[in-house]
Amino acid sequence: MKIERFKVKRVDDSCGRVAEIRTEKARFETPSRAATSTEYNYKKNLKIEEPFENNVGEYVARFNEIDIANFVSKNGSYSNRLRTAGSYADQMKFVVSKAYPQYPFNHAFTDEEIRLLIDVQVEAGMDLITIPHRDGGRDLMSHYKKWAKAAEQHAAHFGREVIPVPHVPMNLEEDRFKSAVRAMWDSQSTFPVLGLTYTSIKQNKINYSFLRAHREKDTWLNMSAVPRIPSGRTSRTLAQMHIPQI
């Protein structure tokens, strides 16, 4: 899949920005949100035939530490994950499909874990391939570019084109967050989509404010792991709204 166009059409202090996205599968505007795998499950169980109006679908694959250990050491674990991801990719074949591996924030990824996470997304048929964040003393852009190339090469074996999506957690230390995001903007041809992992807005206000101050950048911001009911609220729901674009 290719992104044919991403263009910010309007920036407004009262309502954020409006951006146009054109892909081979769909044309739509943000703010928008992805229909999650949970919603696809509800739709299937209710036997609803009509397609979602959402133009992006996101399969959320939850991993704890034991799951990750099994994923890289057990044939059955990998094949089960691949089968499940492939099922969702098939359900999302008429929209832009993405997988979000939801893992413990403090997990220290190995190269093998990242390689297999990328492989399972590519082999399942997802369009947007999540590259997990890996903290530590390493250069972040070298990390993201290395695995973007790996994703593209693996997809080429299947005659497909994919879009690597580096994920940056919103609770990253302020200078590292700004440095990482600026580097993505400088490599827009490689990374037209920036994945963001939600964390508390109140506790990470500086990072959110940084994105808001640069809303004119022609980069698609896609946020994952947004709680449907934010902490401390009981009536207002979010369900994966593109918070940085509000």
Summarize the structure.
The protein has one domain: TIM Barrel. It has seven helices and ten strands.
- The assigned structural class equals alpha/beta
Helical content band? 25-40%
Strand/helix succession: EEEEHEHHEHEHEHEHE
**Rg to the nearest angstrom?**
17 Å
Strand order of the largest sheet: 7-8-9-10
CATH topology: TIM Barrel
In the CATH hierarchy, the architecture is Alpha-Beta Barrel
Strand residue content: 15-25%
The coarse overall form would be globular
CATH class: Alpha Beta
Beta strands, count: 10
Return residue spans where pLDDT drops below 50 for at least 5 consecutive residues. 239-243
Mean pLDDT across every amino acid position? 88
Number of helices: 7
Number of domains: 1
Largest sheet: 4 strands, parallel
**Subunit arrangement of the protein:** single chain
- N- to C-terminal distance: 27 Å
